[in-house]
Amino acid sequence: MHVGSEAAAGGGPVLRVGNASGFYGDRFSAMREMLTGGPLDVLTGDYLAELTMLILARDRLKDPSLGYARTFLRQAEECLGLALERGTRIVVNAGGLNPARLAEAVRELAKGQGLDVAVGHVEGDDLLPRRAELDLPEGLLAANAYLGAFGVAECLKAGADVVVTGRVTDAALVVGPAIARFGWSAGDLDALAGAVVAGHVLECGAQATGGNYAFFREHDVSRPGFPLAELRADGSSVITKHPGTGGAVTVGTVTAQLLYETGGPRYLGPDVTARLDTVRLTREGPDRVRIDGVRGEAPPATLKAGLNRLGGHRNEVVFVLTGLDIEEKAALVRRQFEDALAADRRPAGLRWTLARTDHADAATEEAASALLRLTARDRDPDRVGRELGRVAVELGLAGYPGFHLTAPPGPGAPYGVFEAVQVDAAAVEHTAVLPDGRRVSIPPAPVTAPVTAPLAAPVTAPEPPPVEPGPAGEPFEDLGPTRRAPLGLVAGARSGDKGGDANLGVWARDEPGRRWLTRTLTTDLLRELLPEVAQLPITRHVLPNLRAVNFTITGLLGEGVAAQHRFDPQAKALGEWLRSRHLDIPEALL
Which among 561, 556, 535 has a CA at the least distance from the CA of 419? Predict the structure, then answer.
């Protein structure tokens, strides 16, 4: 089996792996665009996220034959023949909770189009049938282990044109084809780690090509192309995109994606632990960024497993407060509302949030208005439905002046809860189902390591001669006078969710900026700049090679995105909020 193409220059074979989906609902046309935009050996698609697994679980409740990302099947209907014609293998995690059924649906689709397509799939991530055996809690809608890449590789080595998986790590979609192409074994830790880093850059699609990028005004990002990686046998890669597509691939866009939903120097996975503090990024040319130097360590003996369950029902009422006395109006409606709730009908959780979107002496009524948001949660749908609506409506002519709502109260809706746990990797039945129906058991990593082992020999950015150390361990450096300005003038940021925790990565654009950022942006300053996180546990990691600091803010998102705990439930804009905050910045950096 051959997956890959020969390099035109630079020594050795190159595997060209592209991405056509970063989430369930991403650009539908991306699959065709990637197949027609230039040569590809493998096209991947990431359709799964924590919220997606809950959506698919609810689909499966209604119809046991569902539970997969149906968008992919419609894309395959349009593009399967094109992929075969161009010799491009397709590897997707669109199987979700039912990879076997999606694989069969692809075969049926191919047969109907007169195509001869070899389809393999990967299963074993579904832990729900073994809930009691694995001592998982009751009441789960879905329980899935994050599998590694060797099952994907087995399917490809057996000649699969299409590989469908369930819940594998996002990077496994890229690592699996690289294993199949270059013949890596479980002991090739550095090569595996390099491919994991490339996979992490690709997994969110256009986020690597200028989408959601802090310095978006520097590029035309009206319609970013999707990224691809040119992987080599040593695990190094070049991130690029098809010629003529929109967006940009720069050290900055790649840095932003590397910081997205990661934490400290160790990026744990089922096949390898990639050391993010060893990543080297180098601009190789226009829209070409080389990734090399990545070191790998043995993975942990456990796998992450995502558990999804229904947490109850929630509803939201948004009161519009206009003009003067905003704080007093908010206090009045809150007092009236809570006094009117019968004690035995009061929701278990009530949360009030006042968003001061109002402006003084505003030229429009909307600009003069603030929003008071009430969020209610309870296991009894009636307590967050009829009862909540009744109380809100009855205040209509008896409340604050100018009383109105953004919308009539609805009936409420169920919400989900996500929890991540660790399970013994040896207890998970990772299985590759080959195109001919043979089943191959994929063993866990033969060598594992505790995640608490000391870090060894990181590659760090060059340091100036030591001076008196600052509060964050960086030497003090006199950069001259400062002025008050937004952090975003000198630093980029990207943020996201991991269950109930938020990840916030911040990077500087040059070495003086990195030294200042590392010294200045401590957890204490972060609490000061973002008061919402002030009372929460925060872990700070320094990544010198990426000129970055990366924060994990524990508990900011409550029980995960499906629980809609806060205004920005996935912390997508947390980094942009931080960049908008003002502090004293050396004029030399500005």
Answer: 561
Give me the helix-helix angle, 150-157 and 172-182, nearest 10°. 50
Rounded to two decimals, the pTM is 0.92
Q: What is the pLDDT of residues 68-113, one digit of tens each?
A: 999 999 999 999 999 999 999 999 999 999 999 999 999 999 999 9
**What is the per-residue burial (b if ≥16 Cβ within 10 Å, else e) of 299-330?**
bbbbbbbbbbbbbbbbbbbbbbbbeeebeebb
User: How many beta carbons lie within 10 A of that of residue 48, not counting itself?
Assistant: 28
Q: What is each CA distance from 129 to 46, 133, 331, in whole angstroms?
A: 25, 9, 50
Contacts of 542 (CB under 8 A, 6+ apart): 472, 473, 518, 548, 549, 550
| 295 DSSP β-pair partners | 275
Query: How many residues are listed for the chain in this entry?
Result: 590
The identity of residue 24, as a single letter, is Y
Q: What average pLDDT does the structure give for the chain?
A: 93
- Which contiguous run of DSSP H or E holds residue 99? helix 99-112
Indicate the SS3 state at residue 266. Answer: strand
Alpha helices, DSSP H only, in 8-98? 30-37, 50-62, 70-86
